[in-house]
Amino acid sequence: MERVAIIGASMTQFGQREGEWVMDLLAEAGEECLEDAGVEAADVEHLYVSNMASGEFEGQTGVPNALAHDLQAMPAYTQRVDQTSSSGGAGIFAAWQSVASGASDVTLLVGGEKMTHRSTGEATDVIASLTHPVEYKTGVTLPSFAGLTARHYLERFDAPRESLAKVAVKNHKNGLDNPKAQFQKEIDEETALESPIIADPLRLYDFCPITDGSAALLLCSEDVAQEYTDDYVVISGIDGATDTHVVHEREDPTVMGGVVESGKGAYEMSGLEPEDIDVAELHDMFTILEFLQMEGLGFAEQGEAWKLVEEGYTERDTGELPVNTSGGLKSKGHPLGASGVAQAVEIYEQLMGEAGPRQVDANVGLACNVGGFGNCVITTIMEAAQ
Amino acid sequence: MTMEAYRYEDGSISYPGHPRGPGGGEPVETIDLSEYTAEVITWTTSTATPPGVREPNTLAIVEFDVEGESVRAIGQATTDEIETGDEVEPVYVDELREPGAGIREPESQDWDGYRFEPV
Question: What InterPro entries does this protein map onto (chain A) (predicted)?
């Protein structure tokens, strides 16, 4: 099996990109990534596009082929990767497989979504359409699942409501130093705790925004990487896993089986353990998810992640394990198909020493991308090439 | 209308039913959960609801005990005066949300069902 390297990365401005549509966003990130890697479009053999719902949001389907044309990457093989909110992570897994298997020497992955032209209700409904009919007819939304789970977590583990607000405060603070984040706005705990209720006990600042944006990665075999550069990152572990489609059927509402299983697979492939991880991007679509992933990935015991957050363990500049140095989905934004790719872009920049004011001391990073409410999860471990 | 759960070969029960149960076994019978009461495991009141959904929308995950076998379900609550641990009973409603107002094809599923009312 080929060792897979990442030699280029890009991310567009995330936020409300008025007048720009999914094809514009994908092409912008794709071009910038090729330029960053110094790779010609004609040398791309496989092109993967992570996107959940361009048909539903915009009425534009067939985006992979359209992007191949816009980039002049023909005759590259292309396909769309949809795994709802984890489409980006699933795209990394597909791109990794294409190179590891030897099917492609040079693979471009571009993730993107255009959402903000829809009302919050419409966008929420497109996302909630992933639910089972018995769930959908109740009007449940992904934010409602977060409210249900957060209440259970707080009550069962006697965790203070403030601990969730601390996640929002931290990630907003990190986002201040990310010029491409949707929000560069510091908030305090009081603001988070007094913001409008969205899904009781969770409030506005417990949720990520609706976002337009795109991000891209250039993957190739390590042999090919060395033809281009001495400085690159390798994917040393990656795995994906599923949990039940129907959320209430899970034995323990505070355990995301997909996080646990994909994490196990990624650790096993890399030969690394949770204590070896220097920096992590976790899928904080809702603040409670940061706790569930810290626990599922072995950074904290079950029911204890909130204590680590309260102790400052996950702070960027002073913590043992900086979490969401990019600002996370919370502050950076969550253009569905782009988010998992953008998580890996942040880890790539951290490992390459290119994260500017967000830079932490890191040789090993982890990204966890969650689809649905933990329905599908991809965990990726990346290391700076030695 | 029933609130139909499946019992599988190994005795486990799921709501909704699936072609295979959690242990991999085939379904052997259906159970109407609307004949039982349940305990509220957790709940939320959602204030940002999609098209065709009541606002606010109080939802609960509840647990039924069917002859010693537990099975959970999600549903709307009849009131926002609900607490974890409350005992509730399913109450029939002919339209839980407006068919066709959201993205889901109206003919692809049913829209009636049960809300949970504190006993």
Answer: Thiolase, Thiolase-like, Thiolase_C_2, Thiolase_N
